[in-house]
Design goal:
Blueprint lengths: L7 H7 L2 H9 L9 H14 L3 E7 L3 E8 L5 E3 L5 H7 L3 E3 L12 H6 L3 E8 L5 E9 L7 H26 L4 H17 L6 H14 L2 H4 L2
Antiparallel strand pairs: 1-2, 1-6, 2-3, 4-5, 5-6
Helix pairs in contact: 3-6, 3-7, 6-7, 6-8
Length: 220
C-alpha cells in the first residue's frame, strides 16, 4: 500500500479513544502553539540544517502541528503525513529522498509541499502511548548523519519530559509551577546551545545537559 492511502487498521489505531483523549487533555492537538515547543523545533532546524521542523500529533484523520518551524499551515490530512508511520511503527523514520522511496513517493507532502528529506522520532509517553513525532524536514534530498540522528533523539527526549510533566500536572501529581520551572529550564538550555560550533560538539553538549540539567525530570 502506498503512503497516500491509509488502511482501516492504521486509522483505527490512530483513532484509539484513550490515545485521542490524552492528546486533547494535554492540549497537544487542536490547540494553540506554545513557546516552549517552538523553541525546540526552531533549535532542531538550526542545528541539523533544515528549513522545516515540526512537533506533529497524529489523529485518526489528520496530523496537527503543535509546533512548526518553516511552514505556514498547522495541519494536514493523513494522506500527507510521514509522521503516521512513526506513530504506528513506534520507531524513527529516516528518509533521504521521499521522491524515490517505495512507500512515500506519492505521499501528499511530496507532491503538494515538495518534501524530500525527513527524519522523525516517536514522541512516546511512559505509559506506552505514542502520540506523535518530532521531526526535521528538507525540501531537497538530505543524507542524515549519525550526529543528526543523535541530536534529534536527544531533543526528542526533552520534548517527552515536557509532555510527561504536563500529564502529571493534569493528573494532579505535580503543580503548574513545576511545569513552568521545566519550561524555564528548556528556554535556558536552548539559549546555551551555540549553533555555530561543530555538530559533534553540539551533540555532546545536548546529551550532557539532558542527563544533568534535565535528569530530575526524567524520573518525574
Amino acid at each position: 500500500m502506498s503512503s497516500f492511502n491509509v488502511s482501516p487498521e492504521m486509522r483505527k489505531m490512530l483513532s484509539e479513544k484513550d490515545r485521542m483523549m490524552v492528546l486533547h487533555d494535554l492540549a497537544l492537538i487542536d490547540a494553540d502553539e506554545e513557546p516552549v515547543f517552538d523553541r525546540l523545533t526552531r533549535l532542531a532546524s538550526k542545528i541539523v540544517g533544515t528549513p522545516m521542523s515540526m512537533l506533529s500529533m497524529v489523529g485518526g484523520d489528520y496530523q496537527f502541528f503543535k509546533s512548526a518551524y518553516g511552514v505556514d499551515y498547522r495541519s494536514t490530512p493523513l494522506s500527507h503525513a510521514f509522521c503516521k508511520h512513526v506513530v504506528v511503527d513506534d520507531a524513527p523514520l529516516v528518509v533521504d529522498d521521499a521522491r524515490v522511496h517505495p512507500e512515500l513517493y506519492d505521499n501528499g507532502s511530496v507532491t503538494d509541499h515538495n518534501v524530500a528529506g525527513y527524519l522523525g522520532f516517536p514522541v512516546k509517553m511512559a505509559n506506552g502511548k505514542t502520540l506523535g513525532s518530532f521531526c526535521v524536514v528538507d525540501n531537497k534530498p538530505h543524507h542524515w548523519t549519525e550526529l543528526d540522528f543523535e541530536i534529534m533523539r536527544e531533543l526528542t527526549e526533552i520534548v517527552k519530559y515536557e509532555i510527561e510533566v504536563r500529564a502529571l500536572v493534569h493528573a494532579g501529581s505535580m503543580t503548574q509551577a513545576e511545569l513552568d520551572a521545566l519550561h524555564g529550564e528548556i528556554f535556558t538550555f536552548a539559549d546555551r546551545i551555540s549553533t555555530d560550533q561543530p555538530k559533534k560538539a553540539i551533540a555532546a553538549q545536548i546529551r550532557e545537559e539532558r542527563l544533568t540539567v534535565f535528569g530530575e525530570w526524567q524520573s518525574a
